[in-house]
Amino acid sequence: xxxxxxxxxxxxxxxxxxxxxxxxxxxxxxxxxxxxxxxxxxxxxxxxxxxxxxxxxxxxxxxxxxxxxxxxxxxxxxxxxxxxxxxxxxxxxxxxxxxxxxxxxxxxxxxxxxxxxxxxxxxxxxxxxxxxxxxxxxxxxxxxxxxxxxxxxxxxxxxxxxxxxxxxxxxxxxxxxxxxxxxxxxxxxxxxxxxxxxxxxxxxxxxxxxxxxxxxxxxxxxxxxxxxxxxxxxxxxxxxxxxxxxxxxxxxxxxxxxxxxxxxxxxxxxxxxxxxxxxxxxxxxxxxxxxxxxxxxxxxxxxxxxxxxx
Length: 310
Ligand code: RIB
Ligand code: CA
Prior knowledge:
By secondary structure, the chain is of the alpha/beta class. The chain has a single domain (4-307), classed as Alpha-Beta Complex (Inosine-uridine Nucleoside N-ribohydrolase, Chain A), CATH 3.90.245. The chain is 38% helix and 18% strand. Helix 1 crosses helix 11 (211-230) and helix 5 crosses helix 8. The model has no long low-confidence stretch (mean pLDDT 97). Calcium ion binds next to helix 1.
């Protein structure tokens, strides 16, 4: 079976780090590039972290630098979860590879052209790079097969009561993506909060005999404490890994197509992903597949299977 050409756009970021490690072991993926965006931390750190993680796992996949701030808004980072530099206190050797100089959005377009209509974009940070690519290249919408995102929530929010971080960071970019005409599969908080690892599962994963397992253990500690001790959740949500696992193994999940728009004007509601899943009023287009359920056992088993390949 031919491989799926994939680009991972991310803001590493602790859960982004596990997402990259998992994607690197998914045989059906041909990971063409990693593109980085400001979000969890500044672009200088997310670019550095993307390069260092890919080096650390022995990958030759090129890493590109993207937007340093949202389209219209000031950058809001998430140091309380990811630490100031985005790696939760873990220090990796700095990559000695020459840094790619092509901008993320230009790399996305170039690779989409090379893989006309087949490229799958997995975006697990703010959608700023995606929006810039869409606004710079009119043919982008015809070149991307579909986009799988970690972001949004049909119900609730994490950064505000109604907005999830990636969408909250750049709501205008997210609305551009959702209305681009490219099908979007949204792994929002509805499913990512259920795609968690318990403390025991974290410990078992860390006990795998690889440097990658040790890296996972290092970067997960801050968020593990946040979810279990502060939020009293049964485990640490694996937001970005959920999107990567969905992109490869959708059969482990459930969801449905709906109409979706992003609130960009509200003072309190900015960043809300408004869906017509539960309303009489229906939007005109079914532009988003909102993932609502996961077989958590199967998800965890897949994470272990992939991490055991290191
Ligand atoms: O809300 C969770 C999302 O925001 C994840 O992508 C995490 O990495 C942060 O970017
Ligand atoms: Ca992320």
